[in-house]
Amino acid sequence: MKIKDIDKENLSFEEIQALDQEYYLNCFGTRLPAVFEYGEGSTLYDREGKAYLDFLAGIAVNILGYGHPAILNAIETQSKKLLHCSNFFYIKSQSFLAKALVENSCGDKAFFCNSGAEANEGAIKLARKYFYAKGKHKYEIITTLNSFHGRTMATLSATGQEKYQKPFEPMPTGFVHVPYNDINAIKKAINYSTCAVMVEPIQGEGGIVEANLDYMKELKELCDKKDILLIFDEVQTGIGRTGKLFGYQHYDIEPDIFTLAKGLGGGIPIGAVVAKDEIASAIEPGDHGTTFGGNPLATSVGLAVLSTIIEDEFLEKVEEKAAFFKGRLLDLKNSYSFIKDIRGKGLMLGLELNSSIEGKDVVLDMLNRGFIINCTGDNTLRFVPPLIIEKQEIERFINGLDQSFSSFGYKGKFNDLGKEK
Ligand SMILES: Cc1ncc(COP(=O)(O)O)c(C=O)c1O
To answer: Does residue 148 have its Cβ closer than 6 Å to ligand 1?
Structure first.
């Protein structure tokens, strides 16, 4: 088989799987059994034309779904002109995207990279440089247990999950982990070398766990009082995912630095670090940089995505649909004894199952029924559909979930099907 013939080869699913197993690094184990060909709106289609309503959206990335005209137009227009030219030159779409992010957030300066981990690396460097420039030896960053900040060495060290770190020890130093939503634990962890606290407004990979309002407010006060920077990792929560443009807006506080990725490019890789002027001004030429980050294509698409999200009523509609979705999930909770909890904000919702039912089995069953979800944390189904999802699609999804749960036929204080009598 020649590489140029790849599209012409009518490979079966099994043949593609065999290629993956033979040639691709085994990071993802046995993947879910589907190969997608194209998408439209919030639906993906496999090679046999089977439709899947997508409540995972490429892990909270495809925020405007598939084939959105704003994204297609930006890709088409920009790709015909210029994909990349290096950061040695001024880039119009980069400057405009930075302006748009700054004008719509609490930040003053933006930097673009290619992923969430890279954005967090940038935030970590910025926090350390800020104190270095002030002549203070403050470098330690407090993060939370069950957090997820990325897979590079520093962001892995920031990630409060030992299972990801163990095989790669020794970890870069300068990170301590404390329980989430525990202000006293942060107070105890602070010492003379603490430069920042980094948190997710909602822990995504940790199982859709929300930060409490009081915790966030106290955390901001504490950081200000102790001359410590507050960094919000908004890689998953940013760009409208939680119903507000940024997750921090739910808490009526302003972080000193926040990071973005996933939704910002609507499927084109891009990450961003946004910081207050005082902190950003510590960075001097040569301190940080990137070859690909902020290129004309990625920033043009980012601009198209952001413009769409901040259009009149877009986010109001997200909140409306999210309230409907959460309400219907709570209805399901009343029907099934094995649903422990419903959590989350906006279109970043989680349904925690008790140990009598395995989330991964539900994920597979839902896939067979034509719905895409995944399982995070201990045993939590995560729902992060495109923000353009429609109410009737949410209703169809709930019916699918209801049928899937019924098919497991669990007993409890409920009837044989796990449903209330
Ligand atoms: C909160 C958060 N931070 C960082 C990352 C890492 O992003 P990436 O995979 O783009 O490096 C993720 C990815 O899931 C995330 O959810």
So the answer is: yes
pTM of the model: 0.96
CA of 332 to the centre of ligand 1 (A): 30
User: Which 3-state string (H, E, C) describes the chain?
Assistant: CCHHHCCCCCCCHHHHHHHHHHHCCCCCCCCCCCCEEEEEECEEEECCCCEEEECCHHHHCCCCCECCHHHHHHHHHHHHHCCCCCCCCCCHHHHHHHHHHHHCCCCCEEEEECCHHHHHHHHHHHHHHHHHHCCCCCCEEEEEECCCCCCCHHHHHHCECHHHHHHHCCCCCCEEEECCCCHHHHHHHCCCCEEEEEECCEECCCCCEECCHHHHHHHHHHHHHHCCEEEEECCCCCCCCCCCCCHHHHCCCCCCEEEECHHHHCCCCCEEEEECHHHHCCCCCCCCCCCCCCCHHHHHHHHHHHHHHCCCCHHHHHHHHHHHHHHHHHHHHHHCCCEEEEEEECCEEEEEECCCCCHHHHHHHHHHCCEECEEECCCEEEECCCCCCCHHHHHHHHHHHHHHHHHHCCCCCCCCCCCCC
Domains of the chain, by residue range, sit at 69-309
User: What pLDDT digit, counting tens, does each position of 358-414 carry?
Assistant: 999 999 999 999 999 999 999 999 999 999 999 999 999 999 999 999 998 753 445
- Which of 141, 147, 149 is the best mutation target for the ligand 1 pocket, counting ligand atoms within 8 Å of the beta carbon and taking the most? 149
Q: Which residues are catalytically annotated?
A: 148, 233, 262
- The architecture CATH gives domain 69-309: 3-Layer(aba) Sandwich (3.40)
